[in-house]
């Protein structure tokens, strides 16, 4: 890590407001064929809207947001053009880290411009929360009550507090996932809740709730009682399918594998299909696992457990799910 930091000696730390500072200026151009007479040329007047749109699609996201401060015309093109946001070049994901356990403050790193930005996260009281992101939108769920949910664009500073989802107010385990539709700019959020049946060590309630931005309401998508398994704290949406990590409780002797992945079709609603029937065992015994959406493919990153010592990690593995089969990338 130290060597990597030394290679990036040109990194700059900037407040997030720096993204909005003007970056372009019209100037005075000399024309030799006109007796060296100087005249003012406005790039804004010379380039039509459709050409500007295509130029903006080539910019890093931070540079494009900064360009909105140049003039009203550029601001209007960037924020109102559907073509622009649906034809942008793939952006490298930003890295964000909280700097305190008590406050929702932190720094974001732009890997293209190699700059750090100081970001404020509205509606977030502290960093103890569940986080999911998609296409620049970040969704937060408070860790204390699991019902305070907000959606934010950290760059534009636009935020929205959502209605509380239905179901258990204090579940034992919860997970959240968000997915943005690039064409319509609408987004969907899923919350999966798991709670132990009272005085029952075998059965666990498991429910999935879905929020759609175009309707502004929550619906109960699925509800089931698991036997010997419980929900976890990680999920992701890939190509319209919700994947949730589940954990074995061990009370029925099902201790290996300790984890599994269940699937729920958010488009087809998986009507009448048991969630446990969609369960896929993990490729090997894991100490922990995280699900990642990589170009609409499900990727599992997990700590590989030692033989006969399932709580001790001996390495890290990366697998991709293809037609319900795990293909190992690296370990």
Automatic annotation (TrEMBL):
One Pfam family it belongs to: b-prop_At3g26010-like
Record keywords: Ubl conjugation pathway
Annotated metabolic or biological route of this protein: Protein modification; protein ubiquitination
Domain F-box: 41-88
Gene3D superfamilies: 1.20.1280.50
Presence of the UniProt keyword Repeat in the record: no
Official protein name in the record: F-box domain-containing protein
Species in which this protein is naturally found: Panicum hallii var. hallii
